[in-house]
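User: Could you walk me through two proteins back to back? I'd like the raw sequence and the structure tokens for each, with a short line separating them so I can tell where one ends and the next begins.

Assistant: Of course. Protein one, sequence then structure:
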Amino acid sequence: MSIWQLLIQFVFRLTFGIALAMGVTSSRYVTSGFYRVHLWVLLGLNTFAALSIYTLYADVDNSAQVLISWQVVLALAIIIAALSYAGAVVWLYEKAKLGTMLVFAVAAVALMAAALATPWGNTRSTTGIVLAILDLGSSGLLLGVTMAAMLLGHWYLNTPTMQLMPLKRLVILMIAAIAARTLVSATGLVMQVRASETLELTFWIFVVFRWLSGLLGTFMLALMTWYTLKVPNTQSATGILYAGVVLTFLGELTSQLLSVDTLYPL
């Protein structure tokens, strides 16, 4: 699996999580500009994904199976970009109900695209398939909620009169996503250790890095954000969430790299 395929899958997971986080954030407390601007961000991300997928066609074998598979993923990336654009236009006119529906549509299509872009070749058991599906959802949720919380925290700097409840809810959801991600990763790691006779030192170094950055480090920053919001100090909380985004990205990219050649997601 090439680095480009990993990045494409990462973009789809991130898109799913951000869109889902925006969808569950009430527009009664957050201005419409938050949804509009960050749908433009998703438009840009998935335009990049579509162009990357199109470029990959020149480098892969021209067998019918490969082309059909990536043509579907390419079509889904274009659909996500189109839905993001349509959603941004709807939010421009402050049509909250229709805008929320389009945000959830972006999340659903992105999850589908991420599933199709995920390599399933190493998955040989029902347990492995279930774990891979849970890995996909929990990874996207953690990436997206952390990113959306940071973006919303930044939005408070532009609109300081907004209530803090939506941001607090995203931080709680972030902690729940970390718990779910930890459970999935721990289960996959235990099953991988049982299935492998020997594991190299390099493997364990990356596993430790993945846990310290993407799980434990992110959890500590989520707690720091929560207590900072009790002050309240949204500017400091946003700075902490910036660091949380970096750690989450490092942790999830490391997890994807580790999971390429293993039977279970890590």
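----
Protein two, same layout:
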Amino acid sequence: MRKPDRTVWAAIALLAIFLVAGCGGGPRRPAGQTAGGKMLVAASILPMADFARQVGGDRVQVELMVPAGASEHTYEPAAAQLEVLTRAKVLVLNGVGLEFWADKLVGAAGNPGLRVVKAAEGLPIIAEQGEQGATGDPHVWLDPISAIHQVERIRDAFAAADPPGAATYRQNAARYAGELTDLDKEIRAQVATFSHHKFIGFHTAWAYFARRYGLEQVAAIERSPGREPSPAEVAEIVRTAKTIGAKAIFAEYQFPTKAADAIAAETGAKVLVLDPLGIPPDYSYIKTLRYDVAEIAKALR
């Protein structure tokens, strides 16, 4: 996982000093509130932003931290994100080490009223082996049942930050949890039609999804996000793909498909593109996961 360099953090530190000194000019709105009186919420990635909007409804304005199309693993914070955190009431993180930048950015924001919620906290975490040693796999949101837990954590954080809206947050979260439960049933019905249950993914993002639905990811093209596989690793994946009779090699929108294309060329498989994060402007967690399941079905049915 590549972390922001010192130049990025130096720029953020300078901006923090500027903001704390109040050099922006003009009257400031009440902490945590937008011009329209809504609670200002920052969310790290698109799935967390969608969960926050589903729970918050008209009472919140949600600002995305990791820009659309960027990888959550290689994100470098910008001045605009720091400025949002100086004003936000709640910061919604996935947790499990995904937002490696969060602690420094929150510290630089100097916002004592900011409530930080790690939505994955309390879930059973899958261990994974990376270049830095054993870590937890953060991609819990790709299991819709785990996503319900994350929605409930966000609900509780919003209710604590905005007590007058607590009933609304509970009602919205219950409605959305029902939609996620229906999505789970829908996915189970599709998986029941699969004749194969082993697949090759771009990286290990799909471990929670696989565990929930009885699938097995037997290889990952990038064992560490952002690091291309070595020739020996490619050869090993090719052998694995031939052994399981893979009809498709899965790439991801947020990463180049060069390695997946090479493996597919050696095995006669297709390259199918999954999307663990989603694409705006009209991003929907449920619609995105339905798309992913449809692509997975092409390879395993």
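The first helix runs from residue 6 to 20.

Let me know if you want the two compared in more detail.
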